[in-house]
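Archive entry: two folds, one per protein. Generate the first.
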Amino acid sequence: MPDPFAPVRKSLFASLRASFLTGLVVVLPIALTIYLIWAVIGYLDGWILPLIPQAYHPQAVTQALFGPGHAFPVRGVGVVVFLIFTTLMGWIAKGLIGRRVLVRLERLVDRMPVVRSLYSALKQVAETVFNKSEASFDQACLVEFPRPGVWILGLVSSRPKGEIAAKLGPDVIAVFIGLTPFTSGFVVFVPKKDVIALDMLPEDAAKLVASGGLVYPQAKA
């Protein structure tokens, strides 16, 4: 019986179309990445530059250095200011005075019903993502979903905590399942014994999902 999934000989037009689609899978993520980075830089500049005196804007500086006819926009100043400000705030927060101020601000936020819930959720997500002592999204894996015999690619998120850990037990891990083109997904709680760990990098797993199964990582020697 012939294999229905065996590759068939394609016409010239079909080969060109397949090459175009493959190229689109390769080029589109790069183009979108560049566009998003450019957009984020522009957003930060538009948000931060109005807070900087006009004399220190990039256009004013280039005009002062090279003459009136050489004023041109320079992106990225807002990103630099944001990085310096964030680093400075982190350094202050680690000090005794900074910790006291932070505690008082959090107490003030706890008195605001809606703001309190939003702040608590965002703080917990940030602490989980940036906490280096706890692994998160650093292991690709396979789990059976939505039925036995069907495997789906996922990323190990973390071990459950709180009520979920108490109900499901200690031998369960949370797995994030990304959906093509990896713009959304969901979380499943799976027994550790039913999870197959993979050697591929999480970035390679994300590429595989985003490409719809077209871009596979190279096998390790």
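Generate the second and append.
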Amino acid sequence: MEGMAFEMVDIIPRESKPRDTGLTMVLDKGLGIHAAEDLVMYAGEYIDIIKLGWGTHRLCPEELVRRKIELYSDNEILVSNGGTLFELAYLQDRIPEFFNYAHEIGLTAIEISDGSIELNRADRNELITMGVEMGFVVYTEIGKKNPEDDAKLSTEYRISMARRDLEAGAAKVIMEARESGLGIGIYDGTGRLKEAMVKKLTDEIGVEHILFEAPKKSQQVQLILNLTPKVNLGNVRPEDVIPLETLRRGLRGDTLGKI
């Protein structure tokens, strides 16, 4: 991007797209086409992936969804399904149709998750392989939607699942946090980072292989300060893309002079 405002002020440089680290995944919960156009015009350079959240786009006109996917793709943004829609297709035994339709409608990435269902290892591997062979960038999600169920998953289990997903062909593993960012995965019930868990995950898996869902500003700050601006962050609200980028670039008091 050229001709930026206030160019006399030096800031932390940013790798241009397509990049493999410092990814920002945005949650599109049903944006209208004009809102999507505004988002891309103002912040497209800082968005790497857009997830069509949960099952929201099952309720939207196909023509509109196609136009948004084309708009995002034209601006070098990968577009993924929401995990809940995938899980419903799996429960209804319609994965081949789901994958074929996703490809036909223009999705460039597929998220495979089992946040609300049980997905055995053999099926998980097969689905990752199927997605890769169809040309999708495959992301897998680790964690449960229900805090009580998620609490039963040890850090060692998450590490083992991540390694096996990556070996099967996943591009990144997503650490579940839901939209609330409370009491799931790497966050405690108040939304604060479990730093020991994050360190163990990144040491064993590699920070470049993980995308941490981080819907709250405080979580984004903690992860950037702990793991550098190159940490991959997801479940970012459309209105928070520019604010998050200021955190990555030292343009906000929370990170100014600290990264």
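Annotation attached to the second fold: Strands lie at 24-28, 49-52, 78-80, 109-112, 137-142, 172-175, 210-213, 232-236. The chain has one domain: 24-248.
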